[in-house]
Every structure is written in C-alpha cells, then in structure tokens.
Amino acid sequence: MVERGYRIAQGEEDIPVAMGDERGMTRMLLECSLSDKLCVIQEKQYEVIIVPTFLVTIFLILLGVILWLFMREQRTQQQHPGPREKCQKTAPRWPERKLLKELPCQFVSGSAFRESPGQGKTDIAPVPPSRDLSWEAAGCGGNVALPLKETSVENFLGSTTPALAKLEVPREQLSEVLEQICNGSCGPIFRASMNTGDPSKPKSVILKALKEPAGLHEVQDFLGRVQFHQYLGKHKNLVQLEGCCTEKLPLYMVLEDVAHGDLLSFLWTCRRDVMTMNDLPYDLTEKQVYHIGEQVLLALFGNLKHSAEMCDSFACFGSDMPLLEFLQDKHLFHGDVAARNILIQSDLTAKLCGLGLAYEVYTRGAISSQTIPLKWLAPERLLLRPAGIKADVYSIMKSCWHWHEAGRPSPRELRLCLEAAVRTADDKAVLQVPELVVPELYAAVAGIRVESLFYNYSIL
Ligand SMILES: Nc1ncnc2c1ncn2[C@@H]1O[C@H](COP(=O)(O)OP(=O)(O)OP(=O)(O)O)[C@@H](O)[C@H]1O
C-alpha cells in the first residue's frame, strides 16, 4: 500500500474524509480545521499494491508448477532412463585403430562403484530371465520393478546363481583392452585380449561392461542380460557369449569377437579410400556388396534346402535352423535388425548382435520406451501392431519397404534376387565415394537433426 500525504487548499476541492475514489484510492483528511487554508490529506493507492501482488502470486504459482513438472520429469527419467541410445561410437574404428593401453587395468580391476541410496541388506539371488517375471527393463537397468527387498550390491553379487558361476571368466585372463569400440546401452564396449593358457595364442574378445556408478537395478538387469544370452544358446549366426565377470564390480559380459565389427561401420569405412588393412578388404566391388547382402539373408533365414520352385516358406530351409526361426522358436523376435546390429566375420558371413530389444520383449512381453530409427521399422511396427518375423527382414531396399506386409518379398524371393544380383554384378570396379560426407548436408537430405548424427553416422 502506498501512502502519501500532501496538503490541499480548503475550498479548492471538495474532499470527503476517508473515502475511496474510482481509482482504488482512499483519501484521509489528517489534520484540518475550519480556519485552515491548507489541509493535510493522506491518500492510499490500493491498486499499486493489489496488481503487483496478484502478478507476483501468479508468477509464484507458475514457478511452483514448472518446478514440480521438472522434478517429476527428473524422477521419471531416473526410473525410465529414456529412449535407448544406440551404441555411440567413441573412437574411429578403422583405419585409425590403435591400442588404448591406458584403459585396461584401470577398467578391468578398479571400481568406481557407488551404491544407490537406500540400499540395505538381504540375500536375494538374481532372478533368471523368464517370461513370467513381473519386472521391466527399458534400456539397461531402466524401470526394473522387482520385488526386491533392500540389499547391497556386494551381497547381491555374492549370491549369484550357479548358472552364472559356471560362466565366470577369471579377470586375470582378460589381459589387455585393445580399444573401446563404443558406448553401448549398458556401458562401454571394449575389444580386449584374453589369455587362453597358451601365451602365443591370446584370443580377442568383446567386453560389454556395465557403466559405473551402477545401482542395484542396473546390476540386476545386467545379470539378466547375461542370463538371457545364456538362455539363447548357440547359433552360428548369433554372437556367442564366452562368459562373464560378475562376482564383483565392474561387471563384464564376454562375447566372441566378430572380426570386421558391425556392417554399418564396415560400409562407412569402405566408402572411404581405404584399401585392405590387416587382411580386411575395404575395397568392395559391387559383387561383394551383393555377396554380403546374401550372407546377411543367409544368416537370418538359413540355406534354401529345396529348389526355389518347390519352396516358398520358412520351413524350406536346410538342416541348420535359420536364426530368425531359432529366435521365434523361443518366442522371440529380434526387432532391431539393422546394419549396426549385423556383425561381419572375416569370411564375410554375418552374425547378429544387439539383442537388447529381444531381451526387453522377453522380460516384459512388450516393447516399452526403446527407440529405433524409424527408417528401420516395418510399417506394422510403426503402427504399434504386434510384430512378426517379417518385420525382421533386412531390406533389399524398396521391395522390402512395401507398406503392406504381404507385398514384401519372401525369403526365397530375396534370395533369388540377391543370387541374380551376385551373378550379374560388376566384380572389377571398386565401389567408393571419395568425397567427404558433410554432416550438415547429409542430415538435411536424411531429414534428421545434425546433432543426432554421430560423426561416423552410427545412428543410421
Ligand atoms: N561380438 C562383437 N564383435 C565385434 N563387435 C561387436 C560385437 N558386439 C558388439 N560389437 C560392436 O558394438 C556395437 C554395439 O553392440 P550391441 O548393439 O550388441 O550393444 P548394446 O548397445 O549393448 O545393444 P543391446 O542392448 O541391443 O545388446 C555393435 O554395433 C558393434 O560395433
């Protein structure tokens, strides 16, 4: 309230004592007698205080609402770590491959682990992944709603199942980290050297580490993933689990090393002017490109047993069960078949990795928050319809992008298509795009934000 006093000449204005005027102002005659020529008037202007008070109140309410929404969002993000970020490459894979000698020991032996707040005691063994479980996993450790009593991670790891103990690889065997490949959905992924007992024959393996610091849920989820791999078992076109280091932190999943790494990085390297290196051919001809396509198809669908005329279904493959059928047999589908999840072996045959989505579907029975680049999704997946095996077909571009499921080629047709292409393709000219890719231009053409492009385009 603003008050001001002033003097006014008697007779100049007819001033009521202590009354409000139309401007929300109250005037009070303070000192005045009939003989006075001048009177002292006190004037109180209410609007000067009411309007700002009103505005400040609204501002405070809005601020409170915004803060509340922000905190709620933060809490939700802690429970659901958001859309899964696919492997973020941390270093160029080829040709600038080099040994990162400084990484190994610090990573293989030390632990910067901190417990999540509120973790107490109880012995609970990790629960083997099962379709009946009431827990959820979105990304690594996301939204795992387990009936856990409070327990410390050390206790938890100390009570791992015998099944996991069987897979345990002594840490001393992991002698040297050769390079960090990328940051995977659970943590960094390394290429490391493993002692085989024969010093002249060290073996290269892939280590998937759980990022640190990690809470109990992340640890439990990571163990669930290891067990999921174990449950999948062996298939020649599936990346194989060699073991794990899970008796203490940091945790590792040990996988076979597939020599050429993922198809996407491989193809990007081939784009550049890189010739054969370490016996890996990067100067691909058109024929080799089709050959790789055929290998990918073989990896997913297996060998055709019967002649093309007789066979047009998944049952018509050879004695090795095709990978997708193998997964389907276990009530799984991969759901994320894309070049970044196809690993290329030295003989250019293919294997599948990136089983995070399959794990999620297996444990939750549905896909939750994980995001996959739209370009790789079948229309029925875009429409959130139940995904079937045809949604896993790796593209022969347009024909596989037919909107209607029935319009897409069958495995046999794809195979015939690729076989024909291999027969007729140019086997001389090396396919290379010598120009440098300008990320801004690329992003504009691809219709994506340039920030979402990693410098080696691994998101594509
Ligand atoms: N066995 C392997 N051999 C060679 N490279 C591999 C292997 N496994 C993974 N990689 C590399 O790491 C990248 C990420 O692998 P992957 O998608 O399996 O990890 P992730 O982020 O943990 O995914 P997910 O949660 O789906 O398992 C691959 O694109 C590939 O470059």
UniProtKB/TrEMBL annotation:
In alphabetical order, the GO MF annotations are:
kinase activity
- Which Pfam families does this chain map to? PK_Tyr_Ser-Thr
Ranges for domain Protein kinase: 175-460
Q: Which domain of life is it from?
A: Eukaryota
User: Could you list the residue ranges that cross the membrane?
Assistant: 48-71
Q: Which residues form a coiled coil?
A: none
Under InterPro entries, the record lists:
Kinase-like_dom_sf (IPR011009), Prot_kinase_dom (IPR000719), RTK (IPR050122), Ser-Thr/Tyr_kinase_cat_dom (IPR001245), Tyr_kinase_AS (IPR008266)
Cite the PROSITE patterns for this sequence: PROTEIN_KINASE_DOM, PROTEIN_KINASE_TYR
| UniProt entry keywords in alphabetical sequence | ATP-binding, Kinase, Membrane, Nucleotide-binding, Transferase, Transmembrane, Transmembrane helix
Protein's name in the database: Tyrosine-protein kinase styk1
Protein's organism: Saguinus oedipus (Cotton-top tamarin)
